[in-house]
């Protein structure tokens, strides 16, 4: 079975180049074809020798796969369907907004966080997406070249698939990759403490934390992960990082009438977030 080239980091491409009998600098040439020129076939890599291209064609594909279906809304939003882990469908959503064009990408097929309000969680967990599958969502939609932002807010918990998500972010931000500023990328999480620290230490992307209630018991009823990773501990960790300059922190808060939308919740939320440089996104 042939393996995909997209989703590989520069070091991984060096290893592949060595297998193909190429010198190490060829890795940057291959990366340029994949992530800058965005070729769809190995034969388009014209500064790679024919012999090496033949070997690559025998063992690899570029790895780009178009969406299998799409649904367009009147406001310009487009939902794309791809085949993900375990053959399960995954979604990406393209959201145009004046001078911004955002793609909401998935990081897992299904999810194991089991949030009570989330349709993805009700599907169960069917597998992590590879960096290849994550990057493919970005490269393979028709609007790819006009994207200004990527948000990891699709299906799955990104920090439950930290290795592949970090690899995808590396490809998005590295000079040999898509060379995006980290400020164009946001990772949304329920607050998985053990891997949140890695995201904060190893990247400079924006962070969004799902809050939804300032009260521990109520939040646990909505988000069972509260029992394993209490919000107060998540916020304590976040207080050790700078969100006043290049990196932004957001608190995501879905408002349900009669559940978490009264003044008692507002006061408790303000006290909980006091001293943190963050914005609150109220979602109705």
Q: Strand pairing plus helix content: what structural class?
A: alpha/beta
CATH class of the largest domain: Alpha Beta
Q: What percentage of the residues does DSSP assign to strands (E)?
A: 15-25%
Order of helices and strands: EHHHEEEEEEHEHEHEHEHHHEHE
Strand order of the largest sheet: 3-4-5-6-9-10-11-12-13
| Main beta sheet strand tally, sense and closure | 9 strands, mixed
Rg from Cα = 20 Å
SS summary, helix count: 11
Q: What are the main properties of this structure?
A:
284 residues, alpha/beta, DNA polymerase, domain 1, TIM Barrel, 2 domains, nine-stranded mixed beta sheet, two-stranded parallel ribbon, 11 helices, 13 strands, 21% strand
Mind explaining what this structure looks like?
The chain is α/β, with parallel strands linked by helices and 284 residues long. It folds into two domains: 59 residues, DNA polymerase, domain 1, CATH 1.10.150; 215 residues, Aldolase class I (TIM Barrel), CATH 3.20.20. 34% of the residues lie in helices and 21% in strands. It contains eleven helices and 13 strands. The strands form three sheets. It has a nine-stranded mixed sheet with strand order 3-4-5-6-9-10-11-12-13, with no helix packed on it. Strands 1-2 form a two-stranded parallel sheet. α1 packs across α2 and α5 packs across α6. It is elongated. The model has no long low-confidence stretch (mean pLDDT 96).
